């Protein structure tokens, strides 16, 4: 497992020492509404953006027992990279190999400290928050969309009735059986098409178009 922080604008940091654990919290947004005589009702309202946090240290000297590679970065320079990414607040990529973590994120928090007896080492904690791009249209773009759609006919949202064209040998009972699943529904079928069929439900003719619903 290796940890990479990659800046699309240029620059990359491979952590020299893997964190002991990685925390990836997730939570669902809940909107609570208070209803008289019922009380509080919770409604799910999407998910919060997931985050990743971990802690480790930048060693001053290479030690093969815990360092991932020999050409480790200077601790102060590595910490400066993290701080600059946090200040810039531009999205970066966090990749942890052999895991599901491969996200575009903002580095939202950095904390570091020097510990006595570990001369030159820097211990640090970081938090990342998954980043989602929001695209906003300009006034000109919105006007163009409005003008383009102004001349278009409005969509007819009314459901189109299902119809059946009478064939030779048909009867209302037969049509109700085949199309509605129950021959006994021929009475309903007749009521829907009384103006087309006329006063006698037994007299239907090929070519007549009957409404089924």
Please describe what this structure looks like.
It contains five helices and eleven strands; from the N terminus they run E-E-E-E-E-E-H-E-E-E-H-E-H-H-H-E. With 213 residues, the protein is of the alpha+beta class. It has two domains: 128 residues, Elongation Factor Tu (Ef-tu), domain 3 (Beta Barrel), CATH 2.40.30; 49 residues, Roll (Membrane-bound Lytic Murein Transglycosylase D, Chain A). The chain has a seven-stranded antiparallel β-sheet. A two-stranded antiparallel ribbon has the order 4-5. It has a two-stranded antiparallel ribbon with strand order 10-11. Helix 3 crosses helix 4. The longest helix is centred in the middle third of the chain and has 14 residues. InterPro entries: Bact_Kbp, LysM, LysM_dom_sf. It comes from Paenibacillus residui. This is LysM peptidoglycan-binding domain-containing protein.
Largest sheet, strands/sense/barrel: 7 strands, antiparallel
Instruction: From the alpha carbons, calculate the radius of gyration and give it in angstroms.
Output: 34 Å
> What CATH architecture of the largest domain do you see?
Beta Barrel
Mean pLDDT: 84
Q: Within the CATH hierarchy, at the fold level, what is the topology of the largest domain?
A: Elongation Factor Tu (Ef-tu), domain 3
Q: What is the topology, as strand order, of the major beta sheet?
A: 2-1-7-8-9-6-3
Strand content: 25-35%
The total number of structural domains is 2
Shape: elongated
Number of strands: 11
- Determine and state the CATH class of the largest domain: Mainly Beta
Spatial gap, N to C terminus: 62 Å
Unreliable parts? none
Order of helices and strands: EEEEEEHEEEHEHHHE
Derived from helix and strand composition plus strand pairing, the structural class reads alpha+beta
Number of H/I helices: 5
What's the helical proportion of residues? Answer: 10-25%
